[in-house]
Amino acid sequence: MKRKKAVLAAVIIVFLALGWIFSLRTATGAESREKQQELTKEADEYAKKALWVRAIPLYEEALQCKTGDNEEIESRLLDAYYQYGDMDSYNDLVEKRAAENTAATQEYINTSDSYIAGYDLERGMELVKRGIDQTGDQALIEYYEENRYVYSVNVTKYEEIIPTEENLFMPACGENGWCYVDENGREILTESYDAVSRFNADGFAAVKKGGKYYTILQNGDKYGVDETGVNDVYGMSGNHILAEVNGKYSYYDYDFNCVAPAHQYEEITANACGAAAVKKGSKWGIITDSGETVVDFTLDDVAVNSLGAVFADGKAMVKTGESWYFINTDGERLCENGFAEAKAPESSGYIAVGNGEKWGFMDETGKVVIEYQYEDALSFSEGLGAVKIGDKWNYISERNVRVIDQEFAEAKPFHNKIAQAEITGKAALIELEYVEK
Q1: What are the φ/ψ torsions at residue 153 (nearest 5 degrees)?
Q2: Distance (Å, rounded) from C-alpha 258 to C-alpha 299?
Q3: Distance between CA 113 and CA 103 in Å, rounded?
Q4: Which of 27-36, 139-148, 200-209 has the lowest mean pLDDT?
Q5: 376-377 and 368-374: which strand pairing?
Q6: Do residues 198 and 162 lie in contact, with contact meaning Cβ atoms separated by under 8 Å?
Q7: Quick one: pLDDT band at residue 437, thresholds 50, 70, 90?
Q8: Distance from chain centroid for Cα 2
Q9: What single string gives the DSSP state of each residue in 358-408?
Q10: What is the dihedral of CA 283, 287, 293, 297, to 10 degrees?
């Protein structure tokens, strides 16, 4: 009897020991790790033979084991997806790894290539930008710069197209005079005019026909008619017309009634960032939207941008004496150094400056970041600057790399992905597919 009890006790101890060992293996993940290793080993054998259809399910099952080796197995699975041509699965896994900050440089590039090949440039560039922000990898930076400037060029029948901020109702000059075109160069209004202004945000523009000025709506309907003897219209500024009567420019309403008789100037610019430049006699000053003087009439010149304003991103270039200076809307200098020549800001990018012989670019601190080397230049907008090389214009990135293959007789800055240029005497619209937000 005692012997039977001893045997029973020994059996119980063995079972308890085995249970303890099993529990310990389960708790420490040893069993899960062994299973993962077996699955991975088998998958690797199939992968060596390029039997991807058999390797992929095993790698996927191995990843369900959730061990510390998952990142390495993900890399093998990615290679299997890539070799097998399953880019949807590859891209999904790369997106997951990018979110976890574990994606490799080539993974970012491969997935971006896949997105671009599928005509989704923006998605590809945004993924690479995330990779750059996470890693600062130089190869990703190079890839981003080489691929972000995909563009198309549409040569139109017009001689000139004037930039607008949103590329809506762009003034265009053709055989029959001035009209308005959309971002594709298609004529919007059938009426032709002797002169036109840009439309303002409220949908009004000033046009001239038969020697008389009118205001019109975006459907072409006449809204107001000039009866005050307007000789010239500079453009629209807010809800006002900038018009000249008897040699003086001032602010007029949609019926061409002067609304600011105390403000009469030899020249005037559009308001932007809450300020405008105005000229009295031979000197320029800066005023606010309400007409208050910010900079008295002490400036010798101001630089005007492609939208008819001096300010962009709250900054302007003004001339005092022989030098151009960078100022804000309060009239304060933003850097002490002056320049022999300068162009107006177009956005928040680099500003074109010259030394009297060549043109380069400065940053917002006044430091020259692209050396003087071009015959002419326009300030950066949407990441690109127009530059003149010899007698032709092109566009460069902020890294001073030419990014558009074609050459142009004239070129204007980009606004909302579109720039106006000239090819063989005709106006062309250059459209970027991607602009970093």
Answers
A1: -120, 125
A2: 26
A3: 15
A4: 27-36
A5: unpaired
A6: yes
A7: low
A8: 89
A9: -EEEE-TTS-EEEEEEESEE---BTTBEEEEETTEEEEE-TTS-B---S-B
A10: 0
Helix or strand or coil: residue 156?
A: coil
Q: At 69, is the pLDDT very low, low, confident or very high (cuts 50, 70, 90)? A: confident
Q: How many C-beta atoms lie closer than 10 Å to residue 202's C-beta?
A: 11
**298, 281 Cβ separation under 8 angstroms:** no
Answer left, alpha or beta for residue 220, where phi above 0 means left and psi between -120 and 50 means alpha.
left
- Name which of 202, 236, 228, 232 is nearest 217 in CA terms: 202
What are 415's strand-pairing partners? 418
Radius of gyration of the chain (CA): 33
Q: Is 186 exposed, middle or buried (0-12, 13-18, 19+ CB in 10 A)?
A: exposed
Query: Which two tokens mark 368?
Result: 């020259």
Residues in the chain: 437
CA-wise closest residue to 299 among 313, 273, 280, 275: 280
CA distance 241 to 260: 11
Distance separating alpha carbons of residues 206 and 195, to the nearest angstrom:
8
Say whether pLDDT at 12 is over 80. no
Label the pairing between strands 212-217 and 222-225.
Answer: antiparallel
Beta strands in 281-348 (DSSP E): 283-288, 293-299, 301-302, 315-320, 323-328, 341-342
Residues 100, 106, 108, 114, CA torsion sign: negative
Backbone angle region of 281, left / alpha / beta, with phi > 0 → left and psi within -120 to 50 → alpha: left
87-99 helix and 105-117 helix, angle to the nearest 10 degrees: 130
**For a pLDDT cut of 70, what percent of the chain falls above it?**
93
What's the pLDDT at 408? 98
362-376 as b/e: b if 16+ CB within 10 A: bbbebeeebebebeb
Distance between CA atoms of 337 and 334, rounded to whole angstroms?
9
Q: Which residue has the tokens 């975006």?
A: 218
- What are the pLDDT digits (tens) for 71-85? 999 999 999 999 999
Q: Are 217 and 167 in contact (CB under 8 A)?
A: no
- Rounded to 5 degrees, φ, ψ at 224 are -145, 160
Assess contact for 197 and 235: CB atoms under 8 A.
Answer: yes
